[in-house]
Write a structure and sequence with these properties.
mainly alpha, 5 helices, about 65% helix, flat
Amino acid sequence: MASGSAAEQTAPARRDRTHWLYIAVIAAVILGILVGFVFPEFAVGLKWLGTAFVALIKMLIARSSSAPSCSASAPSGRLPAWAGSAVWPWATSC
């Protein structure tokens, strides 16, 4: 085999895609602190946005933590295999 063939070449290392998410979150926190200090009246007006964000996160955590118990209580044999884990927890309130 000749050197440099496709079998001998290795794929380039893939960088973690969540790296930019961490940077964006840290930048948003720093920006929020700066806005709070520089423009306090404007920051108070954005309180509803923070409250809505926290409520959405709480809703997501509550649903994902109840998913195993809801999917375990799904009627067996009547639903497709994917429905118990994907649809059932979101379609019902346990």
